[in-house]
Amino acid sequence: MKNRILLEGVSHGYGAVPVLKNLHLSIYPxxxxxxxxxxxxxxxTLLNLLSGYIKPLSGSITRxxxxxxxxxKDGLFPWLTVAENIGLGLRSLSNKTRRENELRELLHLIxxxxxxxxxxxxxxxxxxxxxxxARVLAGxxxxxxMDEPFCALDYQTRMQMRWELVRLLQKRPRTVxxxxxxxxxxxxxxxxxxxxxxxxxxxCRELLIDSxxxxxxxxxxxxxxxxxIFSELGLQAAGNGxxxxxxxxxxxxxxxxxxxxxxxxxx
Amino acid sequence: MMRMExxxxxxxxxxxxxxxxxxxxxxxxxxxxxxxxxxxWYLICALNLFPAYALPSPDAVWKSLQEELLxxxxxxxxxxxxxxVAIGFVISAVLGIPAxxxxxxxxxxxxxxxxxxxxxxxxxxxxxIPFAILWFHIGxxxxxxxxxxxxxxxxxxxxxxxxxxxxxxxxxVAHDYHYKGIELLTKVTFPAVLxxxxxxxRVSYGIAWVVIVAAEMVGCQDGLGYGIxxxxxxxxxxxxxxxxxxxxxxxxxxxxxxxxxxKLPKVRWGYES
Lengths: 267, 273
Hints:
Chain A is of the alpha/beta class. Chain A has helices at 43-51, 82-88, 96-109, 125-137, 155-171, 183-189, 220-232, 260-263, and strands at 5-14, 17-27, 32-36, 58-63, 67-70, 143-147, 175-179, 192-196, 203-208. Chain B has helices at residues 2-46, 58-71, 73-105, 107-122, 129-136, 140-164, 168-176, 181-216, 224-233, 237-261. The chains are: A alpha/beta (267), B mainly alpha (273).
């Protein structure tokens, strides 16, 4: 199998607003692809297209494998226990003992063995996201879509969840499409970073990162990748003497009129 | 340093006694209010502010209560009323909750039906009394009909708005895990609105219990409402007060029972802030 996901000339929009324009993209088995881009550029729309939740206006999307999504938050059913929520991912297994073994193994994997009968509202945000990870990893899933899965967490938990994801993917390799606005997160997790442009979004930069995971934030590969992404988004110091990146207004200079256009990255 | 070491040890026993006292007071306060009301009632009767036929004394009510219980009439009326409320309420829930589920999922159905549903919701069920008697004559049926008319509309509307407000993310997750059709309805939509449905059941039960008393004043030969009406006809307000006490206590008791439903683990999330 060559591609897990293949997008050919995909365009989408809402009413008169074009969101995605003529997107071509192949995602290979086992690859971790991270999408970064300015907010509102259509990253979530792209994920909804990939998951099949919405259909594109034009172009074709080919998927090979079972796709599941990790949401930002509140993706667990609050009326189900941790075990039952993970069980959603095991629905396709007809064998009851296999389901139970798999559930036990997943609970062990996310280190929540003692919490199988708890309900989501009884868990912390980080624990809930771990349950979501277990749910998408359960059974025979192939492709994981992650829609800013850690951005609703506090800083330390977010860091821990990055390690957690790397560890889980080493145990259970999957093809991952990960959307984030956290550039450090992108550089630490990705095999390939795709930088999206402003709406209507196209891929304006593709970046391969091949240093081994887990990667520290200070790894040279990570730092280099972050520099590249920052500069692609217009957030890198341009060296024009004032010490500010070209997309950022210098408020300390007492600008009389702040032009909103100047605040928008990647014009 | 000494203080820091001794402080927690002192705090612990102090706080337990404190909380024990608090919970004791919490039980004692309503009892005190009830005792106060009874005392005021006694006082007003002892001062002969109203004639005895217009305001029965606590003693008269107590005596009357014993008579009613011995004669078995009160128990009979309680059973009759509970039966009618239960039947009307169950019919209402069985039709109203699915109607609300259906309306919540279809925007055009909502647009079509909501004005009519709201119209009937604001129409006092007692306005249906003439029709109830004409259509269903006497006995349980007119009362059951009135209970149904009183509770169907609020139940259907509350369920409907709960369904319409289910966060879209639950349906996206449901799509990911291939929930479709009837399974989507029973495994996702229904549990997602269950906490609000339970609240709506409590509210409409309250309406039903209020309506049954009025409904039984006409077209019934027994029931709590009929009992009050009979007492009025015989100028036995002591007996009417017995019935009133019974109505209040039963209403509270059944609401406490329905409140227990909110403690079920599958719906607990809906009541956590």
